[in-house]
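ARCHIVE CARD
Drawer: 12
Card no.: 0347
Subject: one protein chain, sequence and derived structure
Cross-reference: see card 0346
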Amino acid sequence: MMGFRSFGRLFRANRGSTVLELALAIPIVMILFMGIFEFGRLFYARVTMQHAVAEAARFAVTGGTLDDDQGDSLTRAQSIVAVIQRQATALDIDVDQLSIDPSDGGGPSQVVTVSGNFSYDFVTPGIQDVFPDGEYTFTVSTSMKREGANLAARGSSLGESVNVVMTNGSTIGLASKGGAIATRITVTGGAPLIVEQSASTGYGGLSQVGNVGGTATGMDDLGLVDGQSVHTMEVFYTNDQITPFGSLMGVFVPSQLYERAVF
């Protein structure tokens, strides 16, 4: 009998210690679980905000605008803000915490910076007490430059696009040794027709693509369809040879350089 009684006391003691260990472990496990939940939400908010700001910066460099829900045109700055809101619909974004520099969205060759501050509110007791007012504020920012010959294809005028090319080519004296021509082409009736063209100031050369009203050359391999529009940027440059390398080596070095891009 004594043996059975000892075994019973031992069993009850083990069961009591198991319950005590479980009671101590549950709060720790719950804290870990809620911590993972909270910081997972914080990570999601930060990644979402960063993505929204990056998309807004990409939109900003196109120079384009959007319409609101009623179909009315928004300003460029309002359009950039709208992109952030549409990309981060799950977040409660305070528009006053968004900033655009330059405030009008920037012009050709300018760097556009889109930034946003976001306050994340913790909901788990204990974790709330660690942060002032139970929230954590972070800032995300993306900067991009409006440049490149494809500006016309992204909303800028042909003249603006030409000016960007000429500005970027100033280090080689492009204005004095050549020029640039931007052309807009629309496929009509199966033919790529030139509908608009703009040349850099002072450049009197002819486009190798063609003239306004005519059919553009060199478009056959692009697979264009009716109604589609593309833009070309041609750059012309006079190459002044300063060494006799070409003559000595029997190598032909062209004096006129030409490059064309299609977007």
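Annotation on reverse: The chain has six helices and seven strands. The two ends are 96 Å apart (CA to CA).
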